[in-house]
Amino acid sequence: MTGSRAGPNILITGTPGTGKTTTAELVAGATGLRHLNVGALVKEQELHSGWDEEFDCHVIDEDKVCDALEDIMTAGANIVDHHGCDFFPERWFDLVVVLQADNTILWERLEKRKYGLNKIQENVQCEIMHVIVEEALESYRQDIVQVLPSNTVPEMESNVDRICAWVAAWKQAAQA
Ligand code: ADP
Ligand code: MN
Hints:
By secondary structure, the protein is of the alpha/beta class. It has helices at residues 20-31, 38-44, 62-75, 103-112, 117-128, 131-139, 153-175; strands at residues 9-13, 34-37, 48-52, 57-60, 78-81, 95-100, 145-149. Helix 1 packs across helix 7 (153-175) and helix 4 runs antiparallel to helix 5 (117-128). The chain is globular and about 50 Å long. The relative contact order is 0.22. Bound molecules: adenosine-5'-diphosphate (ADP) and manganese (II) ion.
């Protein structure tokens, strides 16, 4: 199955502010995999069903997102970047990375992003409760899920190196 793909498909997930987009961009730059930022895609292609006033974000139409990505994911060689992970088909991914950050660090990052107090609290609470880690472990085989800390720049670099090494190993195995 994986052998028929041009490259592996990786999901990078985690609470907003944990470093998904920065990490995904670095890995994409180093490996040639395509970075797919689901939030940006939802905006560009209007894959939503309106605006959520309470949470100050688009209401994602999950079926539309999956339809829009199906052929691209079947072709392979993608890094999907999204803060949720329970609505993608399990078969899409070869590796699922969950990034984590400490509460105070996350709080500061979201403040810098000019999020409102409610939205900051909501997201920090989500991180404290390990909501995305649980979601990933419920949605994917445990042996393809990697939970990585993303508090500092060295941690980010180490995560990028680690994911790139994983991609290189996948390519080797696909050639063999
Ligand atoms: P996400 O896509 O998960 O919302 P971003 O990649 O946009 O997160 O990162 C949010 C902010 O935090 C950015 O300003 C980024 O530079 C910073 N950041 C992310 N991860 C780290 C890290 N491991 N160390 C230091 N700063 C980080
Ligand atoms: Mn992002």
